[in-house]
Amino acid sequence: MGSSTFLLVLFFPFLLLTLSHAATFDIVNRCPYTVWAAAIPGGGRQLDKNQTWTLTINPGNTSARFWPRTNCSFDSSGHGHCQTGDCGGLLACQADGSPPETIAEYATFVNKDFFDISVVDGFNVPMEIGPDSGSCPGGRPSRCSADLVELCPKELKVPGGCNSPCNVFKTNEYCCNDGTCTPNEYFNFFRSNCPDAYSGPNDDQESTFTCPQGTNYTVVFCP
């Protein structure tokens, strides 16, 4: 998960309020190419340029994640494959996607929503998540708008994306499995190009955004 907020959702469900409000998410593709949007919960949908997919996260669902998939091909039954962000070969995702993928994360508890953009699993498409106008006074989007596929260090670069150093090197130095790692050159690459995004250790306070529970959101590919 992208931050300690999401770890709390995962490991301490007794903190969650069961009377959470429904939240609506408009997922918009502003890229000049087709993106196959994915959501848990929600499934997935092909979005051509300027198309929108509207999802409602019902009361009782206390977390969600959204991500783009690229260079996909599906048959009439919704089975196929994506170059990045693939979720088990399904158009309508039932599980998380495969890195590299840019992710928007959302959680709600104790009358407050928490959201962020995460590049912990790498990057494939510029992305933004933020509150709809007027629904979160003083709120602003979390955004990663740089093209990290083009800027990606060669050792992290894969077709269609920029991998995370953990996925490439699989060592504690880059994966922080025991919580002792410190920022490194790859963390600094993601952080400097996408300062809003959750990219590694000690990002929680700077990269997690909040709004009142019941806020509606827009998720944008290529903001």
UniProtKB/TrEMBL annotation:
InterPro entries linked to this entry: Osmotin/thaumatin-like_sf, Thaumatin, Thaumatin_CS
Signal peptide span: 1-22
Transmembrane annotation, as ranges: none
Disulfide bonds: C31-C222, C72-C82, C87-C93, C144-C194, C152-C162, C166-C175, C176-C181
Superkingdom of this protein's organism: Eukaryota
Keywords: Disulfide bond, Signal
Family recorded in the similarity comment: Belongs to the thaumatin family.
Protein name according to UniProt: Thaumatin-like protein
